[in-house]
Here is the input.
Amino acid sequence: MPSTDRFRRPSAHEKLLSQLTDKNTGPFVTMVEAMMFAALLGHRKSGRESFTDSDEPIRLSVMEGRPYGDVLLDVLAAVEHDDDPKILGDEHQADRVLIFEEYANGGLSYLQTLISRQSAKSLQAIVSDLVLDGLQENPVVEDEVGEFLASADLDW
Here is the structure.
């Protein structure tokens, strides 16, 4: 079970994380930012991937100090367990951290596959393409209230 005050970095992707945070060519300034991006990418594209080998964990307070860092943990957990609001309780912090870690690992695996397939592109360009792809896709949002009112056939 993961710690409740730290999150793990998958050692299988340590080289990729170093590239993502390289001072000269990396698209991210910090490891936390790279992991947050990877978790969102994992959620969107590849799913969760468990892992056992990890490198130096990162203090959770570092992520919570980032804009939307603490929200990211909660949102990923809430989406994963949409039928269990207790997942957001303090006693489930370790579960939320594990969900984040596994989505980040899945996202890093997905990104590594893209890098292998698109070897002519820079890492910066690949990440930029992923961000643009995410911004251009317009998910269909159902208006449940509108549907309910329309189906009620109210005669006012």
Observations:
- The radius of gyration is 18 Å.
- The longest strand covers residues 54-59.
